[in-house]
Specification:
The protein is mostly helical and 333 residues long. The protein folds into 2 domains: 10-199, no CATH class; 238-332, no CATH class. The chain is built from 13 helices and 6 strands. It has a two-stranded parallel sheet. A two-stranded antiparallel sheet has the order 3-6. Strands 4-5 form a two-stranded antiparallel ribbon. It starts with 9 loop residues before the first helix and ends with a strand.
């Protein structure tokens, strides 16, 4: 399906209301992936298919067995705009979209079958009644949690631990029994596997088709939406890298630090992973912190500075060693 706004400039697009995008999931870029999710659930003999709707972010509301899909993942033009403004796009590729979709499905299924109060689940995952934190500290090397969408998200809250574990369990050919052998996370996977066995073939207890914060109801323009979003994503408190960036960046210059990091992201992550032995997804949170600082402080590559990518890689190698010593990293929710 084609849309009247596909060839709009960024400025023209930003002046549109979110509701004017008039996006439909069933003929969107991601429609085949939604069908893929339903096939994966059927293959596991789960009598459940979450209803989905278009919204402005990823979430599954409490008590609703469905998933809100953010508009910016549904069309190449919107993915491009999201990446330009935010520096990245959650669900912008098929792989990342499926990872987040499986994660949110874990929440939706949780709501559908009211599994939150299960005693065995609480023994392994902790109480779902705990308040959500504004930020969390995670241990990159902990084997008590599965590793799925990055930034140690399973460690943010027991409900996120559950959803991340479900996503691993649901993913075809994840070979979770072998991959997590000897890990504390394997106990959680086995617990979840037993609970899924108990609901196989059963009908959901909650069948609500409620849609929360539907894009069609939004009064915001894309400009106001991104203004609020960029403010909410700014680094809170003292910058993590701070003065360590002075040798590489300055307040003036021709090449923005943000643009350099976006274009060289894959190269830098690969170099750091090779030098440290970390997985690439463990390196990515540090680069995101660096991207936030260059964006919010308006830094540019220092004039005359050469081999900046190598210098940034070396900086991240040093920081990753500090992370390894401390075994933790703080993430703003």
């Amino acid at each position: 399906m084609t849309y009247f706004w596909e060839k709009f400039t960024d400025e023209e697009l930003l002046d549109l209301k979110l509701s004017e995008l008039d996006l439909r999931l069933d003929d969107s870029l991601r429609a085949p992936l939604l069908s893929k999710l339903n096939s994966e659930l059927k293959r596991k003999n789960l009598n459940f298919q979450p209803h989905c709707w278009v919204s402005d972010e990823w979430f599954s509301p409490d008590g609703v067995p469905g998933i809100a899909i953010p508009f910016f993942t549904l069309h190449p033009r919107l993915i491009k705009l999201e990446r330009k403004i935010m520096g990245y796009c959650e669900g912008g590729t098929e792989n990342s979209f499926m990872k987040i979709l499986r994660h949110e499905c874990g929440h939706a299924l949780d709501h559908a079958f009211e599994l939150q109060g299960n005693r065995e689940r609480e023994e392994y995952f902790g109480s779902t009644k705990l308040a959500y934190p504004d930020s969390y500290t995670y241990r990159p090397y902990s084997k008590a949690y599965v590793r799925h969408i990055g930034e140690g998200y399973a460690q943010a809250h027991p409900e996120e631990d559950w959803a991340e574990t479900f996503a691993i369990w649901l993913t075809p050919y994840s070979n979770w029994r072998e991959k997590y052998k000897g890990w504390g996370a394997l106990g959680k996977l086995n617990c979840l596997n037993r609970l899924m066995g108990q609901i196989k073939g059963k009908k959901p207890l909650i069948k609500s088709k409620e849609t929360v914060d539907s894009l069609a109801d939004s009064k915001l323009t894309l400009r106001k939406y991104y203004r609020a979003k960029t403010l909410s994503k700014r680094v809170e408190g003292r910058p993590f890298f701070g003065k360590k960036l002075n040798g590489l960046f300055s307040p003036i210059g021709k090449i923005s630090g943000e643009r350099l990091l976006i274009t060289k992201k894959k190269l830098i992550i690969k170099r750091v992973a090779q030098k440290t032995g970390l997985y690439q997804y463990e390196v990515e949170p540090m680069l995101k912190d660096l991207l936030k600082e260059t964006r919010t402080t308006g830094l540019f590559v220092r004039p005359g500075k050469r081999r900046v990518e190598s210098a940034l890689s070396d900086l991240l190698v040093k920081e990753s060693r500090r992370f390894k010593r401390q075994g933790r990293h703080r993430v703003i929710m």
